[in-house]
Amino acid sequence: MIDKSDVETNVVVITGAAGLIGKAFVRAVAQTGAIVIAADIDLSAAEVVANDLQDLGKVETAYLDITCPKSVDILIADLMDKHGRIDAVVNNAYPRNANYGRKLEEVTYADFSENMNLHLGGCFLIAQKFCAAFKAQGFGNVVNMSSIYGVIAPRFEVYDGTAMTMPVEYAAIKSAVLHLTKYFAQYFKGTGIRVNAISPGGIFADQPKSFLDAYGSRCAGKGMLDPQDIANTLVFLLSDQSRYITGQNLIVDDGYAL
Known about the structure:
- This protein is α/β, with parallel strands linked by helices.
- It has helices at residues 20-30, 43-52, 69-83, 109-137, 168-187, 209-216, 227-238; strands spanning 11-15, 35-40, 58-63, 88-91, 140-145, 193-200, 249-252.
- It has one domain (4-252): NAD(P)-binding Rossmann-like Domain (Rossmann fold).
- The longest helix has 29 residues, at 109-137.
- The mean pLDDT is 95.
- GO terms for molecular function: oxidoreductase activity.
């Protein structure tokens, strides 16, 4: 059980806050009493999330383009001016271009490069900029979002009979996120900054039944997860109960990667 006092005075930035997992993250962190900054490139969508949760906690919204250095700088400066501190950033945004998700043979070099730049480059930029601010204040916490497919090779057979696939860009990005996590954790060791990752399994989003059955057959019982299943792990990594954990990757997947 996480003591709310471990998190409740914190200022926590969640990128991609209007997305499926982002919404659950905002809700879970707001319920701890922390000040949550729901940051998203779609500010109106972030405001909807904040309005839905206004009775649960302190949720503020902010525009953020994780691929734009100026946008990141402005957010950090605004938060420091308003709150005087930032305790944590959750690197959760998932930018991709219109051609993302094609099968390997159909992926162009330009699309592969653009998606790597958007997603992995954005993850790097957030970690770099926030860690600079964290070092100046003497403390901070970064949680990067990776995936089971950053840990294991794709299991293409679970997609048989569907139009789905496991995009090659995703595998490259999420495995790189894990090494960035270790790199940043090592680079900032001893500065009061912690950097960790969460690797979730699949999240239920009305996928085809054949996929759900094939995926679930490799799990311990539940199969596809709900966003809240990941949010509980995030709250742990934001809390003092994980104060001595850095450079690590927590896999939450109901055993799928075994």
